[in-house]
Amino acid sequence: MSHRGIVLRRVAHSRRAGLGAALLGLLVLVGVFAEILAAPAPLLAVGPRGVELLPAIVHAERYEHLSQDEIARSYADSFAVWPLVRSGPKASSAAGPFAPSSRVHPLGTDEKGRDLFARLVYGARTALGLSLVAVLLSALLGVLLGGLSGIRGGTSRDALVRLVETVDTFPAILVVALVRAIEHEPSALSLVLAVAFVRWAEVARLVHAETLRGASEDYALAARALGASRARIFMRHVLPNALGPVTVSSVFGVASVVLLETAISFLEMGAPTSAASWGETLAQGARNPAALRLLVLPVFLLLVTVGGSYLVADALRDAMDPRAARKRRDETYGSFGPSTDEPHASR
């Protein structure tokens, strides 16, 4: 069995990886299918206007300036299948701010009268969507620059090391604040680019180190003796070995970027104010301590997201290097037998 197959089998047998993947998968599904859980319009409507499927997505502009009662009346003569909550993340409710839980608003409303359930559901889309795009972009940039510096060596290698050291001196929140000060209209794209600008250095450092280590291995020396170019050696032999540490770093990075997005939204420097964000809900809870649910619910979702990411990343790291994982466990807990994540370790 190949090394990749062995790693995948270890991850599949890991209870930590299963639990973390289940938590993250649930949040991803909530974000992707947010309109099914909370939307101002029906999921399906059959009436005078014909058959409408997901009108809240297809005709979103139609409902921007309509109240919930007006939307309901427009479908009074139609057969309609409504989502779990008949409210979007932007519209204010007639119930007013800080309304208690009810059938219409299961978790109540926030300080602007918007449905809290909808804000949290769409906030999952904002947090995970931005983090996944930013982590993917930073991983691609880091692999490209780290690989080029390792292949070329010399001045390119020295320039990358100096550049990585320079980027590491900038706190992520400071970079986002500078971007927000420069642009006129806040946008999700600028936030993604700012986060990727900070995170690529970590990935480049990993790939650069793996390139230096792999260049001295026997398989790389043998390929070099057979006339293979540095680029071919990197693509065929070094990069596959570097993808493991990059994957672990990227999974850890999802949790870091989610926390960063929440922090900058808490400071009102995040996504556009109309976009749902857990950080904005936390800021409302900080301003209104009596509305405890505005603090508790976003914190719970953050714990689930960060905990799930760390469980998956930790299981991946242990699966790729079981000897180092066993040494860490022995140093921390002592030798109490095989780990529950390694059911076949003693066989």
TrEMBL record:
SUPFAM superfamilies for the chain: MetI-like
Name of the protein this chain belongs to: ABC transporter permease
Positions of the ABC transmembrane type-1 domain: 124-312
The lineage's top-level taxon is Bacteria
Q: Which UniProt keywords apply?
A: Cell membrane, Membrane, Transmembrane, Transmembrane helix, Transport
Location, primary (coarse class)? membrane
According to its UniProt entry, the protein's GO biological process terms are:
transmembrane transport
Bias (Basic and acidic residues) occurs at 323-332
PANTHER family named among the record's database cross-references? D,D-DIPEPTIDE TRANSPORT SYSTEM PERMEASE PROTEIN DDPC-RELATED, OLIGOPEPTIDE TRANSPORT SYSTEM PERMEASE PROTEIN APPC
Entry similarity comment: Belongs to the binding-protein-dependent transport system permease family.
**What does the UniProt entry say about where the protein is found?**
Cell membrane
Residue ranges, annotated region (Disordered): 323-347
The membrane topology of this protein is: Multi-pass membrane protein
In Pfam terms, one family for this protein is: BPD_transp_1
Which InterPro entries does the UniProt record give?
BP-dependent_transpt_permease, MetI-like, MetI-like_sf
**Any Gene Ontology CC annotation:** plasma membrane
> Which residue spans traverse the membrane?
127-148, 238-260, 290-313
